[in-house]
Structures are given as structure tokens and as C-alpha cells.
Amino acid sequence: MPRFDVTLAGELNLDLILYGLPAELPAERELLARHMMLTLGSSAAIVAHNLAALGCRVGFISRIGDDPLGQVAIDRLAAGGVDVSKVRRVAGESKTGLTLILQRELERNIFTYPGTIFDLTLADLDFDYLTDSRHFHLSSFYLQRGLRPQVPELFRRLKAEGLTISLDTNDDPGGKWEGGLMDVLQYVDVFLPNAREARRITGIEDLEKAAARLAEMVPLLVIKLGEQGAMALRGRERFQSDAAKVDFVDPVGAGDSFDAGFLAQYLQGADLQTCLASGNLAGAFSTTMAGGTEAFRDRECREKFWRERGY
Ligand SMILES: Nc1ncnc2c1ncn2[C@@H]1O[C@H](COP(=O)(O)OP(=O)(O)OP(=O)(O)O)[C@@H](O)[C@H]1O
Ligand SMILES: [Mg+2]
After folding, report:
1. Of 78, 131, 180, 203, which residue has the fewest beta carbons closer than 10 angstroms?
2. Pocket residue to mutate for ligand 1, from 43, 109, 224, most atoms within 8 A of Cβ
3. Is the predicted pLDDT of residue 230 greater than 90, yes or no?
């Protein structure tokens, strides 16, 4: 029996979110926010944290700077029940990454200082640790500049050890949507883009056509549709599941929380409709509090949310 249900290698950093900023952001003015939240951020860490909250045994490898924000991030992840023994704290020019989210009335601006996110490479990964698991998840393919060229090799080796693999590319800040993704998808069991990403990756504007193209490349394609919930394609079979209704605070980390909800059921061997419903529930739950993990930290609140929806 492997030690973990899921291992991940990826980014670990905080999100600083400012709420209630004016719609316009003129330069050289002091603009006041109504609320702020400093919370665990980064796609990989949010998936890891919320998988652990949902009962999975999770091991996490990352590289952070030797700085106070890195310490807060690692403490948060550990407090969530994730094994962080292989997170490397490296002193040097790169600091732990940081994302600043400016939440305006209808839109948000997102700024990321990548720092150590770009520094993680295959050399940082303890392969025996990663393979002491049933499943491996990779987030933020395009942000992983150091690791990205080595992902095909990493996935090939993980598959040879019998792990299943899931991938969520998230956005490409460079807007190119290349980086060898096609070489990587051949090893992926579950591919979890959102609708915009599915269109960009394929270069096909029609979502159904884009989905059909991607479904030829992976055994299971799951596309996140925001307020519309999610859809999945397994070969020519198509599944759809509506989003849960919630009192919405912010969408930060909803996609990552969806991944955690989906994978928690997938790894228990649940049917696809149940996996989708679980992903939607986790994504919706994440939007009820600030950031991607605040809702999941509160166990009572989490159990109540699931219970009220019949789970
Ligand atoms: N307003 C909402 N109400 C209910 N559920 C939501 C809402 N927004 C998102 N969700 C849930 O969260 C999931 C993921 O959201 P979304 O499609 O925005 O992912 P994403 O764009 O990958 O997010 P992220 O910015 O975290 O990467 C959706 O599939 C849905 O289940
Ligand atoms: Mg996403």
C-alpha cells in the first residue's frame, strides 16, 4: 500500500487579495481597499491543501525561498494535513513567489512575482517519494518554467511506476500555449482545463469542437465551465454537471478546488457523474470564502456544506 493517495510537485506561495478597489486604477493615487486577505495561494498548493481536507493522503514537493512569506505558506499547507517534508527552502536571489490580486467591482487584476516557482526542476524532485503514491497531479504547466521541459520525462517515469496522472495547465502568462504540451498529454489520464484554456490550447473557438479534439488525446477530459459547472468527455461519451448555488465571495482557486473535489472521488473509483458533482461542490465551496483554501480550513463549515447538499 503506497504511503500517499496523491503526490504533487509545483508552486507554493501566498495570495494577497485586496477587495473593494475602485473600478478605475489611476496611477500615482493612493487607492483604498475595503478588505484584505493574505492566504495560501498557488494552484498546486491549493489542490494539495483541499485534497487533504477531503480526506486524501497528500505528499507535496516544492521549492521556496528562505523568507517569512515562504514560511507562512509552508505552515499553512502543513496545518492542512499535507506532508511538506520534501519542500526545499533555498536561500538566494529568488524569493518565494507571491500573487497580488486586485479585486475590483466587476473585474480583477492578477500580478504574480514568480520567484522560486521558476526555479523548480527535476533535480529538486525525490522520485521515490513521488512514486510512493497512487496518483500524481501537476498544476500550472506554463508557470513551471524550470520543470516544464522535463515534464515528459517525469510523466514517463511516473507512469512506468504505475501511477495515474492528472494535469491542469491553468493560464499561459506568455499567451503562446505551446511549450510541448502535446508531448505531455500522451501520459495524462485526466486533463482538467477550463473552457478558455481548452480553446487556446487547441486554437478552436467552438468549445464542443475544441473538447472533441482534446478528447482524442486523453482518456478523460474534464472542462471547467465556471458558473455553468463542468463537462467531461470519455471517448465519445459526454457528461455534464451543473454548478452548485452559493453565496459567492471570490473565484480565486475555484478551479483548483474543483480539481481536488474531482480527484478525491476519482481516486475512490467513483463513477464519472459523481466525480463531476464532487468537483462542482468543491469549486463552489471555495468561492464562499476568500481565496482558494479559507473555506476548506473550517472543517465544521465544510461538513455542513456537503451535508446540506445531500452528501
Ligand atoms: N459562481 C460560481 N458558483 C458556483 N460554482 C462556481 C462558480 N464559479 C466557479 N464555480 C465552480 O468552480 C469550478 C471552477 O471554476 P472555473 O471554471 O472558474 O475554473 P478556473 O477558471 O480553472 O479557475 P481558477 O481561476 O481557479 O484556475 C466550476 O467548474 C464550478 O464548479
Ligand atoms: Mg484553473
Report:
1. 203
2. 224
3. yes
Residues composing the chain: 311
DSSP string for residues in 18-52: EEEE-SS--TTS-PPPSEEEEEEESHHHHHHHHHH
Cell of 180: 510541448
Question: Do 86 and 64 touch, CB atoms closer than 8 A?
Answer: no
pLDDT per position as a tens digit, 188-201: 999 999 999 999 99
Q: Looking at ligand 1, which atom is closest to the CA of residue 226?
A: 17
Output the CA torsion sign for 153, 83, 258, 34.
negative
Ligand 1 binding residues, C-beta < 6 A? 170, 194, 224-227, 229-230, 243-244, 246, 248, 251, 253-256, 258, 280, 283-284, 287
Q: Output the pTM of the full model.
A: 0.97
Superfamily of domain 4-308: Ribokinase (3.40.1190.20)
Asked if residues 61 and 9 have their Cβ atoms less than 8 Å apart, the reply is yes
Going from the Cα of 89 to the center of ligand 1, the distance in angstroms, rounded, reads 32
Pocket-testing residue among 112, 138, 143, 194, ligand 1, by greatest number of atoms within 8 A of Cβ: 194
Domain limits of the chain? 4-308
Mutation pick for ligand 1 pocket among 42, 287, 289, 293 (CB with most ligand atoms within 8 Å) = 287
Among the bound ligands, the one closest to the CA of 222: 1
Per-residue pLDDT of 36-84, as tens digits, reads 999 999 999 999 999 999 999 999 999 999 999 999 999 999 999 999 9
Ligand index nearest the alpha carbon of residue 169:
2
Q: Nearest CA to 242 among 229, 260, 233, 257? A: 229
Starting from the CA of residue 225, give the closest ligand: 1
pLDDT tens-digit series, residues 79-111: 999 999 999 999 999 999 999 999 987 888 999
Q: In what order do the strands lie in the sheet with 58-61?
A: 58-61, 4-9, 133-139, 164-168, 190-191, 220-224, 230-234, 237-241
